[in-house]
Amino acid sequence: MKCMIISGSRNPEGQTARAQGALAKGVTEAGGGCETLHLPAMKIERCRQCDAAGWGTCRSEGRCVIDDDFAAVVKKLRYADAAVFATPVYWGDLAESLRAFGDRLRRTSVHEEGKRGFAGKPAVGICVAGGGGGGAPACTVALERVLRTIGFDVIDLVPVRRQNLDFKLDILRRTGEWLVAETMS
Fold first, then answer.
1. In the chain, is it the N or the C terminus that has fewer CB atoms within a 10 Å radius of its CB?
2. How far apart are CA 48 and CA 36, in angstroms?
3. pTM beyond 0.70
């Protein structure tokens, strides 16, 4: 089982990295493999709403015309057996890099060709809030809405706050193990 982790975190050693690392550890302990892509280190532009109606080839062909790293990420994600989306929480919402990626993926998934490889694919969301941590639940709701629109089978959403991160690391490791078992059954 191959799991693709799409991370909106800029800090490779921060709280979100620790959380997604715990899930990846569970996946590998259960016999699966993980690859992590850090969106902030990539060139992912925001949607341009190409035509006067706010659409473009995303709606008519299921692809985006912007020449950046989006298509390569989509290709890797399409061939994974499961997807994990991990994001730090900013103002109760997704990190900007994950928001830009999700918005474009949502638009291309309006077309059947764009939805290919995502419809029914198991997905887990991890939202890690620093500060007071109160924005994690709202962020998971936003992430779930994006993932379901694309067609993913959202099998778990894990809100984390810095105050309970150490406790949640074990839950995330077990979630990774469970993801492998769920995907293999």
1. C
2. 26
3. yes
